[in-house]
Amino acid sequence: MSHKNANDLPEGFVYLKEVIPNINIDMRYYGINNFLGVRVDGYEKPVCIISKPAAYALKNAQEELNLFNLALKVFDCYRPQRAVDHFARWAEEHDDIKAKADYYPDLEKKDLIIQGYIAMKSSHSRGSTADLTIIDLDTLEELDMGTQFDFFSPKSWLSDLTISSKQRTNRMLLQQVMTKYGFKPFNQEWWHFTLKDEPYPNDYFDFPVK
Fold first, then answer.
1. How far is CA 125 from the centre of its chain?
2. Mean pLDDT score of the chain, rounded to an integer?
3. Which residues have a Cβ under 8 Å from the Cβ of 55 and sit 6 or more positions away?
4. Is 142 annotated as catalytic?
5. pLDDT per residue as tens digits for the range 80-116
6. Is the separation of the CB atoms in 188 and 179 below 8 Å?
7. Which residues contact 178 (CB under 8 A, 6 or more apart)?
């Protein structure tokens, strides 16, 4: 994978905006509105990079949602291994809890790795995983999914029944459209989807997002 394409990305990767020009992108690890409260290592621009097959599968999902005046909003796509390493280092800094109230109010930070919320490897680094939600095209507001993105709690699990019926319906809509176009969900994060036939199932990349 040393070859570069016309975008100066590794061969097989694309910028999602070039495949889906009307995609709404909010790269949360480029800014400070995330569970660390800082920009994450490896995010040099607020752009979504993803494998070509995943990009075209997302395009199909977007086009179906657009028929109903809805659209996808993407929070994270390809994630460099150095970012995953940053997560792991942060998780060991038990005194840094500036984002606790928003992202893990019911957990002690020292338990995030033990309980599996922070891992040493991420499917995002294989290039075919996206974190996303659905927005209303009139208002650009996110549909209510019961929790925000990256909320470390059983409330984010697909099996959670404590959220409202409307919130469960919104989650079901997201699951249905994503699985229809070839993605598999992650049962502990309603926002997380990986292409079933991902092209690099055993590769963990570390080129920067730029």
1. 11
2. 95
3. 14, 16, 19, 20
4. no
5. 999 999 999 999 999 999 999 999 999 999 999 989 8
6. no
7. 61, 185, 193
Please give the Cα distance from 73 to 138 (Å, whole number). Answer: 14
Task: Express each pLDDT in 8-28 by its tens digit.
Answer: 899 999 999 999 999 999 999
- Residue of 11, 142, 189, 198 with catalytic role: 189
How many C-beta neighbours within 10 Å does residue 54 have?
A: 29
Comparing CA positions, the residue from 173, 106, 187, 113 lying closest to residue 143 is: 173
Overall average pLDDT of the 44-59 stretch: 98
- CA proximity to 107, closest of 147, 145, 151: 151
Reduce the DSSP state of residue 185 to 3 states and report it.
strand
8 Å CB contact between 169 and 155: no
> Whole-model pTM?
0.94
125 backbone dihedrals φ, ψ, rounded to 5°: -75, -10
Q: What is the helix (H) or strand (E) element at residue 87, kind and residue range?
A: helix 81-92
Beta-bridge mates of residue 185: 193
Q: Among all chains, which residue has been given the structure tokens 């997201």? A: 174
Q: Are the C-beta atoms of residues 158 and 118 closer than 8 Å to each other?
A: no
The pair of structure tokens assigned to 27 is 């790269």
